[in-house]
Amino acid sequence: MAGEEQLSYSQAIQSATGSLYRFPVIPVKGVPLMNHIANNWDSIWAFSPHPTDLLIATYPKAGTTWTQEIVDLLLHNGDTEICKRAPTPVRIPFLEIFSPPPIPSGLDLLEKMPPPRVIKTHLPFHLVPPGFWEKNCKVIYVARNAKDNLVSYYHFDRMNLTQPEPGPWEGYINKFMRGELAWGSWYDHVKGFWEEREKRNILYLFYEDMKENPRREVERIMQYLDLSLSDDVISRIVELTSFKSMKENPMANYTFIPKPVFDHSISPFMRKGEVGDWTNHFTPGQSKMFDEDYEKQMKDANIPFRTLI
């Protein structure tokens, strides 16, 4: 079945690439979302999760795929073969994604999966379907420092030929600061989940902590999921979810997406995965401008971000 799922998903993407293009964004409750998401918003908002479903929520390019792989391995006791049963978006559907047929939408995939399911979203807190909060679903949120998140998103928008055209780096910084990118403002996103983390069933993680001490963070996720795995299994999961291992894993590195959609020759989906790569992109003037704006936008938020470790 795993091979069939992988093949059918890849074939669907291959056959649909002629109808894909850089989708424009349309605001939904003040948040710019790609038109295929905005046009199906009522269906997304009405999604009713099962109380046992787990939601992995992030701003784009904040460690989503990494967290998905950690969770999948934890839930399957570190079994690498089971976790290679299908590509990441088939194992853990992307809630709000709607694509041209025959690519299955996130809701289509979820409809066919029995709970408990693991679900991915990039939606900010106020756009997450209310059923997740009403049913007290577990939610893992991962936040990445703004400068590295911006750099990673910029390179992703260059290689993902369905995302809005990123334009030059200098202009992209301003779009990020103004919240004009797909899925909106990074600032609102990280603050929205932070403010609700103790009122809701949210485990709030930091990308930088995961890089600094991956074993500690894998164990935090394990405990949050009420699991108990042996030290050997945890060690294996830490190794299997290292950047090097995931970059070489065809079920997690998105090389199964064809070039007309993800052009890895422009930038690989898994590019560097580092903390502090922003220093290779920001000029001193850009960094100063960004820091001043950051102070204004985050002045009331006491979120302990680190731009270097």
TrEMBL record:
Its main location: cytoplasm. GO terms for biological process: catecholamine metabolic process; xenobiotic metabolic process. It comes from the Eukaryota. Its EC number is 2.8.2.-. It comes from Myripristis murdjan. GO terms for cellular component: cytoplasm. It is an enzyme of class 2 (transferase). Residues 51-300 form the Sulfotransferase domain. Keywords: Catecholamine metabolism, Cytoplasm, Transferase. GO terms for molecular function: estrone sulfotransferase activity. This is Sulfotransferase. Belongs to the sulfotransferase 1 family. It is found in: Cytoplasm. PANTHER family: SULFOTRANSFERASE SULT (PTHR11783).
